[in-house]
Write a structure and sequence with these properties.
Layout lengths: L1 H5 L7 H18 L5 H24 L9 H19 L6 H26 L5 H9 L9 H9 L8 E5 L13 E5 L14 E5 L8 H4 L3 H11 L6 E4 L14 E2 L2 E2 H17 L8 E6 L1 H12 L6 E5 L10 H9 L3 H5 L3 H8 L6 E7 L14 H14 L3 E7 L5 H18 L14
Parallel strand pairs: 3-4, 3-7, 7-8, 8-9, 9-10
Antiparallel strand pairs: 1-2, 2-4, 5-6
Pfam families: Esterase (PF00756)
Protein name: S-formylglutathione hydrolase FrmB
Main location: secreted
């Protein structure tokens, strides 16, 4: 029974609609027969104010284009409405109506969370949500002692190991959270370890370093790849480019912190010195989703001496925190020259021809018809524009499309499809290119 319930989708299908219908029934039961028109008017004002405030907050942190589904704002408004009804109607209400009124507030909040999940695809199924709540550790997680024991024993574990790490920010002064490193079975073959290639994994705008492992199912994907290649796979570092969940840095050095310096001057040296990975730029790549895709392009074209391949999954044309003017103001304090230093088109034009740099741009096609949630901010246009420009400057680029939406489910599928190509570029032999639609 649980196996069936665990596979029920949370981003589409019947369950989200059933929860919404049940919640609407509670709202009606809590609000009717009050006989207090003024209270309902105040509740409506409170709900609208909460929705407007939430909309303003999301706009302020720079989620450009506001592609959020419209029902999100309705459920936020109803959450505020029900909270006011519960408080103002408490004294004269019967005990059962008080319980219903109180219950409507978290119920409407849950519906708002479901709408956010429909938007970003953070929890694709019931099981993924339960696992996240019940198990704080990420898949394959171990501690440093376990890693050391396996290494000293020259073990060949059946799957890789994910290790939480605290990386010094001495070079960047960027306040960040703990990050994570995936070590494939081949890493444990010797002491010191073999000089494996490394992939830097960067998540979306609203993020934690573990998102690729939880929402993107990255550990299972890498484990499957390693199993098919005798335990060989790159080392993966799941970085923190924002420092907090809602600090949209776009991986630049600016008013929101020196994110780019952290990734290049803190993370890369740490990986080389602590895990013995190869320092050769031909063995370093980047995989990014949404904001992380934008970061992958920026970092690679700005620092080609450090990275040789990248995958941009549904990223933007450049640092994006609203309109161009808003982005310059929010990210760089109004300094347009600083913005130009991180704009991929400007960077490529200034650099000139690149050598031995490869790229894949992956975007949802939306399937049959036009799905506005496939490319809510023109990521398909961005991919084709950047790819054409990259090829002009000698970058081996291609655009790949699959049906899907701008959510974590698509990111997970894109990662699994492009990992063989990226691993091959970084020196893991015997990894043929994926069968994809490239243009």
């Amino acid at each position: 029974m649980w196996h069936f319930l665990g596979t029920v989708p949370l981003t589409h299908g019947l369950l989200p609609h059933l929860i919404e219908i049940a919640t609407l029934a509670l709202v009606v039961l809590a609000a009717v027969r009050r006989g207090r028109r003024l209270m309902l008017m105040l509740a409506a004002v409170g709900g609208v104010a909460l929705a407007v405030g939430a909309h303003a907050y999301i706009a302020a942190i720079g989620i450009a284009g506001d592609p959020a589904p419209r029902p999100l704002w309705l459920w936020i408004a109803l959450t505020g409405f029900c909270a006011v009804v519960a408080v103002l109607g408490w004294v004269r209400a019967r005990w059962w109506r008080r319980l219903v009124s109180v219950a409507t507030v978290p119920a409407c909040g849950l519906c708002a969370v479901l709408m956010i999940n429909v938007w970003v695809g953070y929890f694709p199924t019931v099981n993924s949500a339960w696992t996240r709540l019940a198990a704080p550790a990420v898949p394959d997680q171990a501690d440093r002692m376990t890693v050391t024991e396996l290494q000293l024993a020259h073990a060949h574990p059946a799957h890789g190991v994910v290790l939480p790490v605290t990386i010094s920010a001495a070079a960047s002064r960027f306040a960040h959270r703990d990050e994570l490193v995936y070590l494939p079975p081949a890493w444990f073959a010797s002491n010191p370890p073999p000089k494996l290639p490394t992939v830097m994994m960067i998540g979306a705008q609203l993020n934690t370093p573990a998102d690729w492992l939880r929402a993107g199912d990255a550990a299972a994907t890498i484990d499957a790849f390693a199993s098919a290649h005798g335990g060989r796979a790159p080392v993966f570092v799941f970085v923190d480019p924002t420092g907090s969940f809602d600090n949209d840095t776009e991986c630049v050095n600016g008013t929101r912190g020196n994110a780019s310096l952290h990734l290049t001057k803190d993370v890369v040296p740490y990986m080389i010195s602590n895990f013995g990975v190869s320092p050769d730029r031909s063995r370093w790549g980047i995989m990014g989703w949404s904001m992380g895709g934008t970061c992958a392009v920026e970092l690679s074209v700005r620092r080609p001496e450090m990275f040789s391949a990248f995958v941009d999954i549904a990223g933007d044309l450049g640092p994006n925190s609203g309109t161009k003017e808003q982005s310059i103001d929010r990210l760089f304090g109004g300094d347009s020259a600083a913005w130009a230093e991180f704009d991929p088109a400007t960077v490529m034009a200034r650099h000139g021809r690149y050598t031995n740099l490869s790229a894949r741009f992956v975007v949802p096609s939306g399937g049959p018809g036009h799905d506005p949630l496939a490319n809510p901010e023109g990521q398909d246009v961005a991919a084709n524009t950047l790819n054409a420009l990259a090829r002009t400057y000698g970058i081996d680029g291609a655009v790949q499309t699959w049906p899907g939406r701008h959510d974590w489910l698509f990111a997970s599928r894109a990662f699994a499809a492009t990992l063989p190509w990226l691993a091959d570029r970084l020196g893991i032999p015997g990894t043929p290119n994926p069968a994809t639609h490239a243009a």
